[in-house]
C-alpha cells in the first residue's frame, strides 16, 4: 500500500467520527480523570467501556472482532473479554495481540 493510499485511508477514518470523537486533549483528560480511575478501581467495566470506548466514537471505528470483544468486556467483565480474545486466537498470545492490538 502506498503512503498516499495509507494517508487517504487514515483521513477517511478520522473524518468518519468527527462529531462523536474526542480531541486528544479531551481523551487524555478522560483517561486521567478521578471518576474513571474510580470506575476501574471498583471494577465498573460497563462505565469504563461506555466512557472510553463507546462515548468517544472509538467503538464505531472498530472492526467487528474488536467490537465483539468490547461488548463481552462490557457485559461480562475484563476476564471474560480476555478469555474471549484468547479463544478467538486459538490460545496463541501473539496471534491475539495481532488480532486485537
Protein architecture, described:
- There is one protein chain.
- The protein has helices at residues 3-16, 24-31, 34-41, 45-54, 58-61, 64-76, 78-88, 93-100.
- The protein has 101 residues and is an all-alpha fold.
- It has one domain (24-100).
- Helix 4 (45-54) packs antiparallel against helix 6 and helix 6 (64-76) runs antiparallel to helix 7.
- The chain is globular, with a radius of gyration of 15 Å.
- The relative contact order is 0.09.
- The model is unreliable at 1-19 (pLDDT under 50).
Annotate the secondary structure layout.
Blueprint (H helix, E strand, L loop, with lengths): L2 H14 L7 H8 L2 H8 L3 H10 L3 H4 L2 H13 L1 H11 L4 H8 L1
In a nutshell, what does this entry contain?
The protein is an all-alpha fold and 101 residues long.
What key attributes describe this structure?
single chain, 101 residues, mainly alpha, globular, disordered N terminus
Shape: globular
Contiguous runs where pLDDT drops below 50 for at least 5 residues = 1-19
- The helix/strand order is HHHHHHHH
Main sheet record:
none
Number of helices: 8
Mean pLDDT: 80
**How many structural units, i.e. domains?**
1
% residues in beta strands: under 5%
Structural class by sheet pairing and helices = mainly alpha
Total DSSP E strands: 0
End-to-end Cα distance: 20 Å
Report helical residue fraction: over 70%
Any idea what the radius of gyration is?
15 Å
Amino acid at each position: 500500500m502506498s503512503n498516499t493510499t495509507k494517508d487517504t485511508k487514515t483521513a477517511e477514518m478520522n473524518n468518519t467520527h468527527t462529531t462523536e470523537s474526542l480531541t486528544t486533549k479531551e481523551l487524555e483528560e478522560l483517561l486521567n480523570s478521578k471518576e474513571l480511575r474510580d470506575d476501574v478501581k471498583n471494577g465498573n467495566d460497563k462505565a469504563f467501556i461506555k466512557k472510553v470506548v463507546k462515548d468517544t466514537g472509538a467503538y464505531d471505528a472498530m472492526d467487528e472482532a474488536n467490537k465483539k470483544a468490547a461488548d463481552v468486556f462490557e457485559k461480562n467483565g475484563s476476564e471474560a473479554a480476555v478469555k474471549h480474545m484468547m479463544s478467538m486466537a486459538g490460545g496463541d498470545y501473539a496471534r491475539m495481540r495481532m488480532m486485537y492490538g
